[in-house]
Each structure stands twice: as C-alpha cells, then as structure tokens.
Design goal:
CATH topology: Rossmann fold
CATH architecture: 3-Layer(aba) Sandwich
Low-confidence stretches: none
Shape: globular
Radius of gyration: 16 Å
Number of domains: 1
Largest sheet: 5 strands, parallel
Number of strands: 5
Strand order of the largest sheet: 2-3-1-4-5
Structural class: alpha/beta
Bound molecules: adenosine monophosphate
CATH class: Alpha Beta
C-alpha cells in the first residue's frame, strides 16, 4: 500500500509515519529527513538547500522529485511506502503519480491530519520550551512554513479529492487516538 500522510507542519505526520513503519513494515519516505541528512553531511545538495530549509521555504520540485525517484528504486519500497512531507506541490504530486505508474504502483490513500493553525503554533512553542527543536522550529519560520502550506500544499487536497483518495482525520486528538483512526481507515480501505 502506498500512503500519503498529508497535513501542515507539526500535524504529526512524522510520528504517525514511524508508527506505520513499525506496525506495517512500510518504509517512511520523508523528504524533510532526507534533506536534513544532506545538510548534516555537508554534501553539495546539502549546501544548496540549507538556507531554504532554515527559512521554511520549499526546495525546488526538481530536487525533491529526484531524491524521491532514487529512493523509490530501492527494494524496500516494492510493497509500498508511507510518504511523509511529499508531495507538497501539484507538480510533485503529478510527478509522483507518473513515477509510481512506471513501477506499476499507485497512491492508494491520502490521509489528511487536520490541525488548526493556532494548535500548530502552540505545539512548536512546547517543543521550544522542552528544548527538542530543529533549526526551522521557531515561531517566525513556522509562520512561513504554514503560509507556504496553505498556498502551495493545501491545493493538493483537491487534486487527490478528485481521485477519491482523501481520508480526513482529526489530528488534534491524542497521538494514540490518531493512530487508531488511521488504522481503522486503512483497514476499511484494504477491504
Ligand atoms: P518537513 O520535515 O517535512 O517539515 O520538511 C522540512 C523542510 O524541508 C521544509 O520546510 C522544506 O524546506 C523542505 N522540504 C521537505 N519536503 C519538501 C518537499 N516535498 N518539497 C519542497 N521542500 C521540501
């Protein structure tokens, strides 16, 4: 099964993707993690994207499509994957559909984790207070990441909605309840 976890920054996509990896053995394909690893390694790609990540802007479609394409060629993706933070633009979604079609695969379901903006801001503030932040976890950058989400990424809900693939879950529930709701949605879909 190929699953897109969809939602604004801080909605809990990464947390739920890790749980799906544990429970269903599906690899977590997080472009954010891949880009942060590139930055940490100091590679040419990392140097190219570092400032973009720090501002909370989007890295170019060409770059993220390339890294997803490389990742999808790996054997562990044959049974499916959980996409976390990708796609984030319509061209990325179109490229993903094409790439998967080339492997005789497709996106089966898009799980939207819906969380209000004020809750996202307070979650980031909690991470700052507890000292578990990333460089792009500060109120200013988060505001930009949210604006980018609403402008570039939220339109994907229509794209996938037209394909009848979107299941919306209240991402403001406790983590375990979100996990349960996702599992129920996936099991219903698999039937
Ligand atoms: P994330 O961990 O998914 O919040 O991603 C962290 C940052 O990486 C984002 O704010 C963007 O700068 C960049 N990024 C991650 N995924 C993508 C994507 N699919 N398209 C463009 N930029 C991305």
């Amino acid at each position: 099964m190929n699953i897109v976890l969809f939602g604004p920054p801080g909605a809990g996509k990464g947390t739920q993707a890790k749980i799906l990896r544990e429970k269903r053995g599906l690899p977590q394909l997080s472009t954010g993690d891949m880009l942060r690893a590139a930055v940490a390694s100091g590679s040419p790609l990392g140097r190219e994207v570092e400032a973009i990540l720090a501002r909370g802007d989007l890295v170019s479609d060409a770059i993220v499509i390339r890294i997803i394409e490389e990742r999808l060629r790996m054997a562990d993706c044959a049974k499916g994957a959980v996409f976390d933070g990708f796609p984030r633009t319509i061209p990325q979604a179109e490229a993903l559909d094409k790439l998967l079609a080339g492997f005789n695969r497709k996106i089966d379901v898009v799980i939207e984790l819906r969380v209000n903006d004020d809750i996202l801001l307070s979650r980031v503030q909690q991470r700052i207070d507890s000292g578990t932040t990333r460089p792009d976890d500060n109120p200013e950058t988060l505001k930009n990441r949210l604006a980018v989400y609403h402008k570039n990424t939220a339109p994907l809900l229509d794209y996938y909605g037209r394909q009848g693939k979107v299941l919306t879950i209240d991402g403001m529930m406790p983590i375990a309840d979100v996990t349960t709701a996702i599992a129920a949605a996936l099991d219903a879909k698999a039937k």
